[in-house]
Every structure is written in C-alpha cells, then in structure tokens.
Amino acid sequence: MKIIDNGQSQFYDEMFDRNGVPREHYRPFADFIKATSPKRLNRLQFSTDKAQMAMGMTFNVYHDKQGQEKILHLDIIPRIIPSKEWMQLERGLKQRIYALNLFLQDVYNDRKILKDKIIPADLILSSKDYLKPCIGLTPPKNIWCHITGTDLVRNQNGDFYILEDNLRCPSGVSYMLESREIIKRAFPDLFKKLGVRPVSDYSARLLNMLEHLSDKPNPVIGVLTPGVYNSAYFEHSYLAQQMGVELVTGMDLLVKNNRVFMQTTKGLKQIDVLYRRIDDTFMDPQVFNPSSLLGVPGLFKAYKAGNIALANAPGTGVADDKAVYAYVPKIIKYYLNEDPILSNVPTYLCREEDDRKFVLEHIEELVVKETNAAGGYGMLIGPKASKTEHEKFRQLVRENPTNYIAQPTLSLSTVPTIIDNRSIEGRHVDLRPYVLYGKEIEVIPGALTRVALTKGSLVVNSSQGGGSKDTWVLYYD
C-alpha cells in the first residue's frame, strides 16, 4: 500500500522526518508497513472495525437525525511517543493540574488571585460555570479535579502546546483502553519489540483514586450515568464493569438524612463515592436546574455535609472555561512560582478591546471559539470558512465579546492513516492524556489520539466525523 507524502509537507509528521525518513522510534513499525501487503493491512483494518462493533464501542451523535450508533473509527497505524518526550509531557501536566486545583480552591474560598488582580474578578464571578452554591466549599482531601483529560497539539516545529483543559466529565478513556486491546492483537510482536508501556491498569488506578476520597476502609462506589441514551454510555458502563462498582442513574438513588442510598432488591445501600458523568447543573434539581430529571434531589446537601464524595467536584468547569485558559500560565506562576513547562496556544480574549479589534480585523486567519462550547461546536476556522461565516462570527463577537476567544490556526501534526483501503496518507491529530489526582497526581502512560479523517480537516472530534488511534508510549527512546 502506497504511503503518500512521507512527512514531506508543511506539517510535522509523527512517523517521518522532513526528508521522508522514518523517525528512530517509528522505524520498526515503518519496516513492518513496508513489508506488509496491502491486502493484509486492509484485513487488519476490517477486523479492527468488526472488533469495535462486537465490543459495543459505539456512541450517538445528538444532531444526527438518523439516530444511529456509530463506532469511533480506530485506524490501525498508531501514534508512537518516545520516552523522553513523554516525560516532559508528564511533568507539564502534573504541574498544570496541581495549579488548577489550587486555583479552584482559592476562587471558591479566599479569592486571593482575584484580589491580587491576576485574573479579572468579573471573568470568574460572572461565568456561568462559577457555581455560587459551591462558594465556601472544600471537597474531600482538598481535591477538586480528580479526573482530567487535557488536549494537546503539536505544531510544525514539533513543539507540544496545551489546547484546552477538560476538568468536568472528560470522556474517551474507554476508547483508549479498548483500542489498546484490539491493536495488541493486531501487532503482538511489535509491542514487545518497541517496549510499549501498558495502560490496562487504568481502571485499578481509577478505583484506588475513588477509594482514597472516602475515609471508610471499603467504601461503596458508584458511576452516575445519565442513562443508556447518553452518547458516552458505553464508557460509563465499561468503567463500572472494569472497576467492579455500581452503575447507577438518578432514578436508582435517594437521599435520606443527608446520606445517599442506592435502591436494591435487598433494600437501601449507602453510596460513599460517586464518579459522576452528568453535568454539574443536572445533578441536583433542588440546587441547580429544577427541571433536571437526571439528578438526585438532596445530593448536593449530602455532599456539603461530608457524607458522600463526588468526582469530579461540582464547580470545576470554571477552570476549563476557554477564557480562563488564557490565564493558566499566570495561574501556575501565581500559585507555584514556576514557569509553565507546557505552553498555551497564544490566545486573544475578545473581552479585551485591543484583542477584539485584532480578531475582527484578522478573523479570516484565526480560529474563533465560544468559551463554553465543546465537541467542535460554536467554532469558526477562519481559513476554511466562507465570507458569510466570517461576517456572522464578527457580529457574534461584537454582540457578546466575553463569550469568545480566538487563536492562530495551528498546523496540527499528522500521522499516516489508512484511507479507503487504497492508500496511507497523513491526517491531522491531537492528543488527550488522562490524569488522575488521588494520593498523588498520575498521568496514564498512553492517551486518546483523535484523528481528523477528512483530508485537510483540523477538527478531530468524534461528533464531527473524527476517528482515533492507539497511542504507544515507549519505555525507552
């Protein structure tokens, strides 16, 4: 099968250098591709698709009128990261999560960072993700962000940048875990030859972290899901099954005397820790959204009374607001007195007059994002958009500048990808490592690599037609 554009383009290719020569850590895999017939590669890809369906690795796209479940297409060519690069990413992610956790504790309590005018107070206090019921709250073990999925991209020079922080209910880790099981069966010899670090202990690490949040020796733990119609239900059920804990919906739970109970055939059973996979404002209709049918009346009161731990803590969304993102380097410096190990993408805040003027004048060159949107929605990619779309977003920015940021259009790195069973071509990717915060901060030595399957596209989200790749982190360079 022919490999088109062996890294000889304007983008950084993960497998090939500028001369089309395989990078050292990719060489065994590149040799395998060269020695393997197109027929066998296509057979491996076909088997991978079938395995995903058999495992139930599907998701729903809410705006899809057909309402069909889809697989998150797994391309069999992995993204490979050498040990030295990963160690740098790991250090940077630990630093970032530690600082963001201190930030959350501060803004809901003493607000020192606001009083010292490091961040504009109105940016935080007026954010829809700053939850007033959480003011004065300190969560169990002083940890707010227990599970984080941080998105990174690599530019044309090979440098990694943080694209955004996901501290609410980051998804995708089940695809990372199941994809690894599938790809291991496709390339068993290469795993041994390259020395790929395992990710199979993620569920055990997650369970240990959740147990750490309770003072009980054997706490009862549940995964709180919105239900079978949620787009990530496969992940919720998968993680509950892997950890050996309860999978519950709001209908299964009730609160008595500020304690949360699960209804079972043998009566009520107290829940000590909930890994919640529902949004903050849907978790308790008595405190947040009164029309929510997904949550549990009284849950937040039980939480404030210290009778249940929640992961992630309510209110974490203010730390991954895209406008707050621009201040994270200052947040790190303020709380840790350190320079960021990993850089942000340069960001223009449309709430600032000079930044807004620049964005309006250069919108054709920029990516404009809603500060509270996700999944590739509420976004304009200037170089790919029409003049009509440019003008539409100019008007949106003028009407509500606080709701928008802008960034340069990044030249995301590429990884060779099998296209229509005919050729192997570079497609743009990002990287979502997962971080657990319990007794210590742990970065899982793997990640969800999302890939834009459409040629030239920079949008990797599954809801926008993206796929995924297994991510191999090596023990040695």
Automatic annotation (TrEMBL):
It comes from the Bacteria. Residues 78-452 form the Circularly permuted ATP-grasp type domain. Pfam families: CP_ATPgrasp_2. PANTHER family: BLR5612 PROTEIN, SLL1039 PROTEIN. This is Circularly permuted type 2 ATP-grasp protein.
